[in-house]
């Protein structure tokens, strides 16, 4: 896939996350709290992914192979996702969408730079640079401005 197309996809999906947070917050108000809303979100997401997998001819049996060959650590992604969606659903109506996502992105970038720098979790190493540090600092300044205004 073309790198530019992949980058546009990343921006598009990033743009949809605040929409998801707002919808889940609304569902939480109507349906019993953030855990219930996150559960509904994951259930609908699971059904959607199952339909996509079946419709595209993917073999679900490959999960059994992954279970045999990968470390149990790789399955923590689902647990992290559940806490992420539940937390965002809880935080969005209390902090606002802009501050919530500013803080989320700051946390993502801080850990992303560390993961890249040390090549953790099987990722290729990409050393910390002055430009990356400057980008994180600018983002943190942006979060402070969002919080203040």
Question: Can you give a write-up of this model?
Answer:
The protein has 149 residues and is mainly alpha-helical. The chain has two domains: 17-95; 97-149. The protein is built from six helices and no strands. It has helices at residues 3-31, 34-55, 62-69, 76-95, 97-118, 130-148. Helix 1 packs across helix 4, helix 2 (34-55) crosses helix 4 (76-95) and helix 4 runs antiparallel to helix 5. It starts with a helix and ends with a helix. The mean pLDDT is 91. InterPro entries: YdcZ. Keywords: Membrane, Signal, Transmembrane, Transmembrane helix.
Principal-axes shape call: globular
Count of individual beta strands: 0
Treating each run of at least 4 consecutive H or I residues as one helix, how many helices? 6
SSE string = HHHHHH
Largest sheet: none
Radius of gyration over all CA atoms, rounded? 18 Å
Give the overall pLDDT as a whole number: 91
What are the defining features of this structure?
membrane, signal, transmembrane helix, 6 helices, 2 domains, mainly alpha, globular, 149 residues
